[in-house]
Each structure stands twice: as C-alpha cells, then as structure tokens.
UniProtKB/TrEMBL annotation:
<dbReference type="InterPro" id="IPR008936">
    <property type="entry name" value="Rho_GTPase_activation_prot"/>
</dbReference>
<dbReference type="InterPro" id="IPR000593">
    <property type="entry name" value="RasGAP_C"/>
</dbReference>
<protein>
    <recommendedName>
        <fullName>Ras-GAP domain-containing protein</fullName>
    </recommendedName>
</protein>
<feature type="coiled-coil region">
    <location>
        <begin position="33"/>
        <end position="60"/>
    </location>
</feature>
<dbReference type="GO" id="GO:0005938">
    <property type="term" value="C:cell cortex"/>
</dbReference>
<keyword id="KW-0175">Coiled coil</keyword>
<dbReference type="GO" id="GO:0046580">
    <property type="term" value="P:negative regulation of Ras protein signal transduction"/>
</dbReference>
<dbReference type="Pfam" id="PF03836">
    <property type="entry name" value="RasGAP_C"/>
</dbReference>
<dbReference type="InterPro" id="IPR023152">
    <property type="entry name" value="RasGAP_CS"/>
</dbReference>
<dbReference type="Pfam" id="PF00616">
    <property type="entry name" value="RasGAP"/>
</dbReference>
<feature type="domain" description="Ras-GAP">
    <location>
        <begin position="159"/>
        <end position="377"/>
    </location>
</feature>
<dbReference type="InterPro" id="IPR001936">
    <property type="entry name" value="RasGAP_dom"/>
</dbReference>
<dbReference type="GO" id="GO:0005096">
    <property type="term" value="F:GTPase activator activity"/>
</dbReference>
Length: 770
C-alpha cells in the first residue's frame, strides 16, 4: 500500500486543506530537534532575530511620531493663545524620556491575569475589533499602538499577521453594515481609517514603498529646477515675476491681480503650460507603470484588505458597478497607502531629506499624487478646474487601473492555515509580548469602559478576566513607564502537550502517517548533518541510518538507531518496500533536501532586503529624534518671544528654531492667589450654572493661583472655613484643547464654568503680573 493515502485521507474536498496541515505538522516534527545546527538553521535564526528587531523598532518610531504630532498640535494652540511661556512644565512632563529595561514589580497573580487577558485578546481578535469601533478618535492612536505594534507586533509571523487581519475584517464588515451611503464609505477620518493607515506603516508596507517608489522619487528630486506648475494663476504670477526680474518693470498690458479665467486665457500662459502637461502625464505614467509592475511585491496583508473591501462591497451593494468598487479599493490603496508616501517621501523614509530648495519637485509630487488619486477614485475635478487638462491621463489609464485594482484582490485566504497556526500557538510554550505598563493599563481601561458592549454575559471569558483584574490603575508618569515581557497563555484551553493526538483526532491522520513523516524528517536531518552523505546520490536510506548509528557523535548514534527501527516498522506496515530501495520515501527525502537547499538562498535574500529595511527604520528613528529636539528648542524660543509680545499665527514653522542652548526663562515663583466672589464670576459670565443655594452665595469666593507656568489652581472657599471646599487643577493646554474641540463647560461639582471665559480670565490675570 503506497503512502499516497495520506493526502486523500480528508476526502477530495478537504484535500488542499489537509496538505496545509501536513506541511505544518512536518515543520513541527522538524522543529522538535534543533540540536543539529546547519547553515539553514543559522540563517533562519538570523532572519528571526532581524524580524524581531524590525518589529521593536517600528513600535518605537510610531511612539516618536505620536510625540511629534502631539507637540505640533500643542505648539499651534499655544502660539494662538500667546501663552507660550506658561506651558513649559506640561510639555516637559509629556516628553520625559522612558528608561528602558528595568523590570517592574507586579505580583504573580496579577501578572497571570494580564497574561490570560492578552492571550484572549490576541487569539480572539473580535474583542479588539469591537473596541476599535467603540473608542473615539482621540483614544484610537494609543489603542492602535498597542494593537499593531505590541499585541500583533511580530509583523513577519503568519499567525499574528492573520489574527490582525481577522480583526480588520470584522471592523470593515461593521463599517459596511453601518454605512449610510456608498460615497462616504472609508473616506472620512474615522478610527477605522486611522487603523488602515497605521497598518500600512508596519515593516512590510514600509519596505514595499521603499523598493517600489524610492528610485522614482529620488530621480524626480534631482531636477530641482524643473517647474511643472500648471495652475494658470501661479504660472501667470511666476511669469510676471521673471519679466520684472529681467527688465526691472512690468509692461502695462500685464496687470498684477487677474482672475483665473484671464490668466488661463493668456497665450503666453498657455504656451508655458502645454509642454508641462505633456511632461506631467509622462512622469505620472512612469509612476503608474512602476506601481503596476510591482504588484507581486505588495504585502499580502494590504492585498488581503483590498480583497475584503471588494467582497464586502459586492455583498452589501449588489448593484454597485465594478467601476464603483474599484474606486473604493483605490481609495484605500492610493489614498491611504501610496499617495501619502509620494507627497511626503521624507516621512516615509523614501529619501534622506527633502531639500528646502526643492519646492518645484515638491509641487510636482503633489500633482502626481492628485493625478493618481483622480485615476483611482471617481474623478473629482470640481475642486480645481485646471486639473481638467490632465483628463487624458485618466481616460487613457482607467481600464488598466481597474484591472490592476482587481488583480490586487487576487490573493488566497488564510483561514485553513490560521486554524493550524492556533494549534501551534497552544503547543508552544513561549508565546510572549513586550508591553509597557501604560499600554497594559490603557487597554484595560478602554475594555472596562466598554465592557457592557463587549461582553454582556457574565460567563464570557473577557468579562470574567476584567472583573477579576478590578479597576484599571491610572497611567504612570512617563519616566516610570517600564516595559515588561508578558507571557501569553490561556486559563481555559490546556496547552496541547501532544499535538499529534489533536491532529489525528481532527484529520484521520493515523499513527502510521506520523511515523512516516517523522522518519522522513530524521533522514533529512541526518543527511544534512553528515557532510560525506550530503553529496552522495542516489540516496540510500539504510546506508544513511547505518552511518549515523556508527558515528562518534552520541546524538547521531541515537538517531541512527531510532531511524533503523522506524524503517523496519514502516516495512512491516507495508508503507515502504526494500525491493524498490524505499523509492517513495527516498524520493520525498530528496525533494525535501532540494527544497531546503533553495530555502537557504531564499532566507539569505530575504535577510538582505530586511537588513536594508532595518537600517532605514533606524535612520528614520534618528530623524524623528532630531525633529523632537528641534521642537523642544522651538518651544523654548516661542516661550521667550511670546512672553510679552503678541504671538504669531497658528502654524508651526513660524518662529525660527532656536539653537539647543537657547537660554531658559527663569523659573517664576507661585503667582496669586487672586480672590473673586461668586457674584463677580456670575456677573462676568464665568459661572454658567450654580447649585449653591441663593442664601449661601454671598459667603462663597474663589481663589485662583498659578503654582507654575501653564498650571492653575481654582479653589472654591466658604467664608470662615480655613480649607477649600473644592480645588480644581487646570493645565492651559487642556483648556485650549477643550476650546478647540468645542467643549464649553468645565464642571466643578457645585458650579459649571465657561471654558472660553476661564481662559480669558487666566490670560488677563497672569499674563502681565510677573
């Protein structure tokens, strides 16, 4: 009886599925013994370590990018408010550097509860999927940091990748369920769209962008003087400026301020624009071709998301045309993934820096991105009439573009393998994640907040774990935010000690099949570890077994004896036959050796490309750090310049960045307290609502002080009592943010205050009294 019954055991329909399982089973059997170190094993180990480093570094960059964004928004608010001097403390506190590596003390029981909780979150992605839809936009970034870079941080491990994509699928499905109309799908800046963008910023997405776009963009930037502006107003203005520079004056028939129509109708402007249009279309075409030719290197996960968008649209909107569906896929692939990298290549590490002198290439890149966007989406030219003249680019490429977007979706699903991966995870003893205390506490706090929506029933594992953990601890200060190695395991499923029994039960895999696979695996290992056998052809299995059994190395001897015994057993079971030199098994061993040989080359190639990615990510880290340094110095500069003067407008690049040693403003003493009566606050409209009984109001007063710049204390007092009844700490930045988000009320238990009026009061009271 030949060994072929193996693959057909699951019946014709399960055939593909079954082979997947076997390959997983074989790799498991092969992994059981790692004593034999050969070139392949060493290369694979190097590759694994490199992937782990990339994952860790990506997470650090994501955190740094958030800090840069955070400072960016604070600087803008402070400048608008001309109170730059007073926020120093807050920012300093936000950016204390984190000491890494020190362990934290967490008692064993608590550690175990977190281990169970995070195993549950990782292996049942639906919980996180629901959470992502429940949190608001201001919380999503912190959650995504934990999800993308910690919970599923190993971006090159198929199980984690597949679980993360499963989570995406439920988030997308829900987005389609609740969408009110087709046009708004996936467009708005929602938690889901932030999530998709963050996903594209993981290692694989970054390396794809670099390999496909970097060269194109760099060659464009080299032509610093190539001006391809096609907006008639700007072209007209540039034309006037150059005439003025040459002749020192302007002809009378060329007035300064004209309408877009007049500019567009001017023959000289038309002559300047015509060749530029041709050139833009050529460049856009070359970008498009590069992207289309690189389809095979688009990361699996990104293509899989495209596939989900397509199938969800078909299900929810059966009447949607292929054209409309492609515009949604294009909305994700171009709008969220490709175009941001074209418009800001420096942020995506595609170029070293974008020189300030490169304003023309910058504009060209923006125009290219617009063209690709108009091609990928339903064209929306209404915004800029002058883009209409690039319509031929869209018309000529629309069919090709849709073919490409559909081709992106043609990737296999992974559900078969995921089930197997989950088995493996249960049998592995060493699942773990590296997570900071604040990530633990923040995730716990978001889950607790939304527990009723996530787990209504008290028997649900998620509810049981969260209720045992109790209320989430508050966030720790940045400097105490330690990282811990958290082992992941489940309290409910016992790890499957003997995975073979599980597989046998599930797949009609017999003990004989496992014997066969194991024998094959040992033969392969022996041939690879005894150099004089590696070269010999044809392969003679009895000779291999004998050579090992009589070697000097005890491990080899043990295996040689074991495999001789296995060969004898397989013969008795009629699975192999000595008369044809064990042909079936020998052929499979030979095929496996060839495969492993190539595997080593693949591993080496992959390692090379990932080393480049790792270097890029580290360079980007350095770039972000220098940006933070600049921002810090910049803040200091703003504080000095804004102390008494009127601040500049809201953008960030307004004041030149001060050197790092800009002299620090002196620490001011506590200011205040200044006293205000309840009646006065009411009259000035500072109090919106009050619960203080009418007859008590004359006895109530407020003391307002500023213990340190940017921090304020409002205390509510009752005449004759020494201590305040109530105190409220306020940070100027938080007030500004509230005002910015349109939050108008500040609640103080007995009274509600008006945010804008409180800001005005603080500005007026503390701005000059230094």
């Amino acid at each position: 009886m030949s060994h072929h019954h193996l693959s057909s055991a699951a019946g014709p329909s399960g055939q593909h599925r079954s082979t997947n399982r076997y390959s997983a089973l074989q790799s498991l059997i092969a992994d059981q013994d790692t004593e034999i170190e050969d070139e392949l094993a060493r290369a694979q180990k190097r590759l694994r370590e490199l992937k782990a480093r990339i994952s860790a570094q990506s997470k650090k960059n994501f955190v740094l990018e958030r800090d840069v964004r955070y400072l960016d928004s604070r600087i803008a608010l402070l400048i608008q408010n001309r109170m730059a001097l007073d926020e120093r403390e807050e920012v300093k506190e936000h950016l204390e550097d984190v000491d890494e590596g020190e362990e934290t003390d967490m008692d064993e029981r608590r550690m175990q509860q977190y281990s169970n909780l995070f195993f549950l979150l990782q292996s049942e992605p639906r919980h996180i999927a629901s959470l992502c839809r429940l949190v608001n936009l201001s919380e999503i970034d912190t959650l995504l940091q934990t999800v993308m870079f910690t919970l599923y941080g190993n971006q090159y491990e198929s199980r984690e990748e597949h679980l993360l994509l499963t989570m995406f699928q439920s988030v997308l499905a829900a987005q389609f369920e609740t969408a009110t109309e087709f046009g708004s799908l996936l467009r708005a800046n929602t938690p889901v769209s932030r999530m998709m963008t963050t996903y594209t910023r993981r290692g694989p997405g970054q390396s794809y962008l670099k390999s496909v776009l970097a060269e194109r963009i760099n060659s464009l930037i080299e032509h610093k003087d190539l001006n391809l502006e096609i907006n008639p107003l700007k072209v007209y203005e540039q034309m006037l400026n150059s005439i003025q520079d040459e002749t020192g004056e302007l002809p009378e028939d060329l007035p300064r301020n004209v309408t877009p129509e007049v500019a567009a109708a001017h023959p000289d402007v038309q002559n300047i624009i015509a060749p530029r249009l041709t050139m833009l279309m050529e460049i856009a075409n070359s970008f498009l071709l590069t992207i289309m030719n690189g389809i095979e290197s688009v990361p699996y996960g990104i293509r899989w998301i495209c596939k989900q968008i397509r199938s969800l649209t078909r299900r929810k909107y059966p009447e949607a045309t292929d054209y409309a569906i492609c515009s949604l896929i294009g909305g994700f692939f171009f709008l969220r993934f490709i175009n941001p990298a074209i418009v800001t290549p420096q942020a995506y590490m595609l170029i070293d820096t974008l020189p300030a002198s490169a304003k023309h290439p910058r504009r060209t890149l923006t125009l290219i991105a617009k063209m690709l966007q108009n091609l990928a989406n339903k064209p929306s030219y209404a915004k800029e009439a002058y883009m209409m003249s690039l319509q031929p680019f869209v018309d000529n490429n629309k069919t090709r573009m849709n073919q490409f977007l559909n081709a992106l979706c043609e990737v296999p699903d992974f559900y078969d393998t995921l089930e197997m991966d989950q088995y493996m995870a249960l049998s592995k003893k060493d699942l773990q994640i590296n997570i900071t205390l604040n990530e633990l506490y923040n995730t716990q706090s978001l889950l607790s907040q939304h527990l009723d929506a996530l787990a209504r029933n008290e028997k649900q594992h998620l509810r049981i774990l969260l209720e045992e953990l109790g209320p989430p601890p508050p966030q720790v200060p940045r400097k105490d935010n330690r990282s811990i190695e958290l082992p992941l395991y489940s309290r409910w499923e016992m790890p499957i000690q003997d995975i073979t029994t599980a597989l046998m039960a599930e797949n009609n895999v017999t003990q004989n099949d496992i014997l066969y696979l194991e024998a094959k695996s040992i033969f392969v290992q022996l041939i690879r570890s005894i150099p004089r056998l590696a070269e010999r052809r044809p392969i003679q299995l009895p000779l291999v077994a004998e050579t090992a059994a009589t070697a000097k190395d005890a491990t080899l001897v043990r295996r040689g004896i074991k495999v001789k015994e296995m060969l004898r057993e397989l013969e008795e079971l009629k699975l192999v036959d000595r008369r044809d030199n064990f042909k079936l098994l020998t052929d499979e061993v030979a095929a496996e050796l060839v495969h492993l040989g190539n595997l080593r080359e693949k591993v080496v190639v992959e390692t090379r490309s990932l080393e480049a990615v790792y270097k890029t990510i580290c360079d980007h880290n350095a770039y972000l750090r220098s940006q933070l340094e600049q921002y810090k110095a910049y803040l200091q500069n703003v504080r000095q310049t804004s102390a008494g003067k009127k601040g500049t407008s809201g953008g960030v690049g307004v004041v030149s960045v001060a050197g790092k040693d800009a002299t620090k403003p002196k620490q001011t003493a506590v200011l205040g307290p200044y006293k205000f009566t309840h009646q006065q606050f009411e009259k000035d409209g500072i109090i919106i609502e009050t619960n203080v009984p009418e007859n008590r109001r004359p006895s109530i007063f407020f003391l307002v002080s500023s213990p340190s710049p940017g921090a304020f204390l409002i205390a509510l007092h009752y005449k004759g009592r020494e201590k305040a009844i109530l105190e409220m700490d306020l940070k100027i930045d938080d007030l500004l943010e509230k005002k910015n988000q349109g939050v108008e009320q500040l609640d103080m238990e007995y009274v509600s205050l008006n945010v804008s009026r409180v800001l005005a009061l603080l500005n007026k009271t503390f701005q000059r009294r230094k």
